[in-house]
């Protein structure tokens, strides 16, 4: 049974394509992005695939983990064309999920619970995409997507490279440090005063079980020092845990960088590309 239910190429207007080129670079135009629907645990989940227009060999594949929940952090066709097209322009295939319960997908968002399968199940789509090299997988996530990336790395060792930007390592259920984060996980996990809520927070906070991360994955952590949504000590604290457990990583802190690294995007893109080239190229 096919796992990909539907594929549709994204066609932007000429003015939108100009904005894509100015925002992500001329090279993005030489890539193709498609909106897809695929099966995950029997549910129809929406996502994207992106790849270079000219392919003459099997390519590494990057799994992209989106941030936010619901409309906050949702990837629309325009941003998919830019975000995923940029990675595809580096010579990779990109597979991304909106997660269950989001953007028209069936099911309910579980904020790092069962919806983690929506990420892991993307790898099975390679059976229907003959230009993906099944021996070279990477994974990337920003914000909540960073949390999803950490959790995915406790479930499989197929990923040779991981990039986590402004990633959540500790939900801090009893803290008011980040109202943004508290709002996000209250939306999906319910009453913050309940024991169940606190248990879910612990289960989703990689800081509590870093030893479960695959030691065959090489991690790049990027974080802005002025990030007020996911505080920089998430990545700093995590770096000490990675050292303790012998997991290869690099941590880069961007001075006065915000949650989106707006003033440091080009620098971050260079580091992301270099990391993938180092660990995914032949």
Q: Any guess at the CATH architecture?
A: 3-Layer(aba) Sandwich
- Extended strand count: 9
Task: Quickly name the level 1 CATH class.
Answer: Alpha Beta
Count of individual domains: 1
Give unreliable regions as ranges: none
Tally of separate helices: 8
**Class of secondary structure makeup:** alpha/beta
Distance between the termini: 32 Å
Structural shape: globular
Residue-averaged pLDDT, rounded? 90
Beta-strand proportion: 15-25%
The CATH homologous superfamily name equals: Alpha/Beta hydrolase fold, catalytic domain
Radius of gyration over alpha carbons? 18 Å
Question: What name does the CATH topology carry?
Answer: Rossmann fold
* Helical residues, percent: 25-40%
Q: Report the sheet with the most strands, covering strand number, pairing sense and barrel closure.
A: 9 strands, mixed
Describe the structure.
- The protein is α/β, with parallel strands linked by helices and 282 residues long.
- It has a single domain (4-280), classed as Alpha/Beta hydrolase fold, catalytic domain (Rossmann fold, 3-Layer(aba) Sandwich).
- 31% of the residues lie in helices and 24% in strands.
- It has 8 helices and 9 strands.
- The protein has helices at residues 14-24, 77-89, 116-120, 144-152, 179-189, 195-204, 233-244, 265-280; strands at residues 4-9, 31-40, 43-52, 59-65, 93-97, 132-142, 159-165, 218-224, 249-254.
- A 9-stranded mixed beta sheet has the order 1-2-3-5-4-6-7-8-9, sandwiched between helices.
- The radius of gyration is 18 Å and the shape is globular.
- The two termini are 32 Å apart.
